[in-house]
Amino acid sequence: MTAYAPICVACYLPVGASAAMTLSHMKALKGTAQLEITVDKLFGRCGLPAAVVDHGRVTGEKQSVDWHGTAMHLSAMDWDAVYGMRQPKVGKPEAWINVGKLDSRCINGLSQLVLKAKGNVGVLRVTKKAQGFGYDTSYWVPKNLYKAHKVLGIRATLTQSLAVATLVGRYGQPDEILKQSAPGEKFRYWVLTRRDHRPELLYAVDFEIDSGGSRTYAISSSGVDFVQQRLEKLLQQWERDYVLD
Q1: What is the pTM of this model?
Q2: What is the dihedral of CA 82, 84, 89, 91, to 10 degrees?
Q3: What is the pLDDT of residues 66-81, one digit of tens each?
Q4: Which of 73, 88, 118, 219 is deepest in the core (most CB within 10 A)?
Q5: What is the DSSP string of 40-84?
Q6: Longest Cα pair distance anywhere in the chain, in angstroms?
C-alpha cells in the first residue's frame, strides 16, 4: 500500500502513557466497521464501489473476476475500493469503474470513503491433532481475489469540516503532530488494545488539518507497515518490562 514518510514533531508516547483516543472513540468513526474484513465481505455489506483502483503494474498479470454477474479485470496486488462520488470513465487498465447505480449504505455522513485492501492475504487455520498432543497449522491464499484481499486501512472525507477545537475537545491532544509536504499537518492518535498487559492490536488514526479544521481522516491497522513497526517496538518494550524482569 502506498505510504510516505512523515516528519515527527512530537515523539512517540511510552508504553505506559494514557491514550487520548479510546477504541470506542475510533469505532464510532464512519468506515471503521469495514476494517480487517475481506473485499468479498465488504462488497456483501456495502455493495459495489464507485471504482476499484488497482495498484498492480499496468503491464502485470490480471485476472477476470466476477462479482454476482459484474465482471472486473484486476491483479492480485493491492486495491483501493472507492465509495461515494462517481469516478470519471477514464478507461485506464489499472481501475474498474462502476457505470451502474452507486450504493450509499456505508457512507452516510461522508462524501467519500476509500478502503485500502492488501492483496495476496491468506487464511491461517489451526486444528488440534486427532491423536496425541499439539496442533496442525495450515496457511493458504484463496484463489478468489475478493477473498484474498483484506481491508487494512481507510480514508474518509466528511461532508462538513470538523473544527480543531471540536477535535481536541472530543479526543484530547494528539499523540503526534506530523508535518506534511503539502500545506497543513496531521494530528495522529494511537489506539492500542492489550491482553493481560501485552500489546495486542494497534491503530493509527490521522486527521488532516487545514485552515483550522479537518475534513479527512485515515485509519491504518497493524497490517500497515509503519503501524506494525510501532507495535513491534511496543512488544519489545513490554518484554523488557514484564518478561525479562
Answers
A1: 0.84
A2: 10
A3: 999 999 999 999 999 9
A4: 219
A5: HHHHHHH---SEEEE-S-TTS--EEEEETTEEEEE-SS-EEEEEE
A6: 65
Look up the CATH number of the domain holding residue 155: 3.30.160
**Count of domains forming the chain:** 1
For 213, the domain range is: 8-34+149-245
Coil, strand or helix: which one is 225?
helix
Q: DSSP strand E in the chain: where?
A: 7-8, 51-54, 63-67, 70-74, 79-84, 95-97, 110-118, 123-128, 135-140, 150-163, 176-179, 185-195, 198-210, 213-220
Residue 228 domain-assigned?
Answer: yes
Is pLDDT at 39 greater than 80 in this prediction?
yes
Q: How far, CA to CA in Å, does 78 sit from each of 75, 117, 162, 170?
A: 8, 6, 30, 33
